[in-house]
Amino acid sequence: MIGDERNMSEAPPTELATETPHQAEGSIVPVPALAAEHLSRGVVGKILVDNISVQVQRGEVLAVVGPSGSGKSSFLRLLNRLDEPTGGTVRLNGQDYRELAPQELRRRVGMVMQAAYLFPGTVAGNVAFGPRQCGVKLSAEQIATLLQRVGLSGYPDHDVSHLSGGEAQRVSLARTLANAPETLLLDEPTSALDESSARGIEDLVLGIIRERRMTCVIVTHNIAQARRVADRTMILEAGKLVAVGPTHEVLGDG
Amino acid sequence: MAELLNSLHGDVVMGLGQAAVAIVLCFAVVFLCRWFAVHVERETALSLARGLVQMVAVGIVLALLLHGSLLIGALILLGMTFAAAVTASRRAPDIQGALILSFYAIGAGAGVVLAVMLVTRAVTPTIAVLVPVGSMIIANAMNACAQSMERFRSDVTAHVGQIEAGLALGAEPAVAVAPFVQSAVYASLLPRLDMLKSLGLVWIPGVMAGMLVSGASPVYAGIFQFIIVAMILAASGIAGLVTTVLMRARAFSSAAQLTLRPGIKN
Other CB atoms closer than 10 Å to residue B156's CB: what's the count? Predict the structure, then answer.
């Protein structure tokens, strides 16, 4: 994170978004790629996400950790507006995301879920799905390139029902990357996989994020994984942000 | 009124005698069930008594109404459509506005088909034809509405992950649920398609049987029955489509978020 890091002992630990680039102590502070501003969501008397403000800069990886039921996934689902905030908003490069059509927003903020949820049919059909929604038809070469990048060369005609869990998650990643998103949301993408497949996916995702200089928010219950992949980490408890900062400061060096 | 009184004196006495035979047969089956420790005596007795009273009452009302104008017939069908909508909406108690949705769907299915058939004179525009034919069409449109509503809801709530994966990739809600719209409409049509296929081979439906009993030409009775079943198919198709399209609209928020989820009142 470029900009001020708050002392984790301060409460509540929030970061307010910067709407436009401005001078701060002689240096230009860039507009955050993604900024949650007082983001909240409650359902029938229960608060899932409670007034969270946090910024993520372009190319940065932010891990969201916390116990089960702390609101990690609920927070992530607000970032691409799969759920509607009951308070606050999210800004993409300074623009309020409610000004964007949901379809455009979700193409720009891609998401890989805990389970792959592939559509019935072939691997190529799944990869081509996103671009087709905005009238773009991927060529066979483009699909092959995407599949090669996720380690699935030669898979375009495979039926998705015959894939292993790790392969399915790679297809899910390729399918999301096909939209060329600026920001990638990862909701425990390796939690359903064995250790070997999980590390493979983790390395792959990290490589792609660095190579494309994507912004990434990853929800994980695996502290070791957060230490390995995240530049910064935020801790949620009961929907509240209790700490945010550089991963080694928030989680220690392990 | 004179016809009604004549019926009461002649046919009704004979009919009640025939009903008594049918009731005895039912009780024979009840005693057979008792042999296997299945006790349905009280329920059967109540159902038989209720059924007989209801049908006699309907007969009396129809005997009075069937001499009325087409407007009275239209009002009767409107009342039947509302009753059908109430029944269909009970299949989806967790869907807000299920009653009005069902009313629109059944009304559209039965209304369009009846209007076309009346305008083209494929059905005689008299109350004596309109009410019984209309009731059959409304009843089938009701079943199609309930079946498509139930199928769409169960498919969507069972595939929340897949639908949200589509939305997360930038798909319009209509695209994300397209496979479930198709399966819901198909599920509502399938029983009617089977009915059409088996027409005359497996069963001779009520209208044809009634016409034959009353001395109509068997060939004309068969053709008329086909017309009725074809109308039922068309009305069911429209009702299933309207139900599913309205359900689809209610399944998402204005920001393309899936709101039809397990355990959440929609």
Answer: 24
Does the structure show a pLDDT above 50 at A8?
Answer: no
CB A159 within 8 A of CB A122: yes
Site of tokens 């928030």: A250
User: Which of A74, A104, A106, A173 best probes binding to B when mutated, by most B CB atoms within 10 angstroms?
Assistant: A106
Q: Return the CATH number at A97.
A: 3.40.50.300
Say yes or no: ipTM exceeds 0.95.
Answer: no
Backbone angles phi, psi at A207, to 5 degrees: -60, -45
Cross-chain residue pair A129–B166, CB shorter than 8 Å: yes
Please name every residue paired with A36 in a beta bridge, in sequence order, or none if there are none.
A54, A90
The structural domain count of chain B equals 2
Pairing of β A109-112 and β A183-187: parallel
How far does A208 lie from chain B, in Å, by closest CA? 18
Span A131-158, pLDDT tens digits = 999 999 999 999 999 999 888 999 999 9
In a domain, A62, yes or no: yes
Nearest CA to CA, how far is A192 from chain B (Å)?
Answer: 15
| Tokens, residue B132 | 């019984």
pTM across the whole model: 0.81
Q: What's the CA gap between A19 and A2, in Å, rounded?
A: 15
Instruction: Determine phi and psi for B212, rounding to 5 degrees.
Output: -65, -45
Which tokens go with A13? 């630990």
Question: Number of folded domains in chain A?
Answer: 1
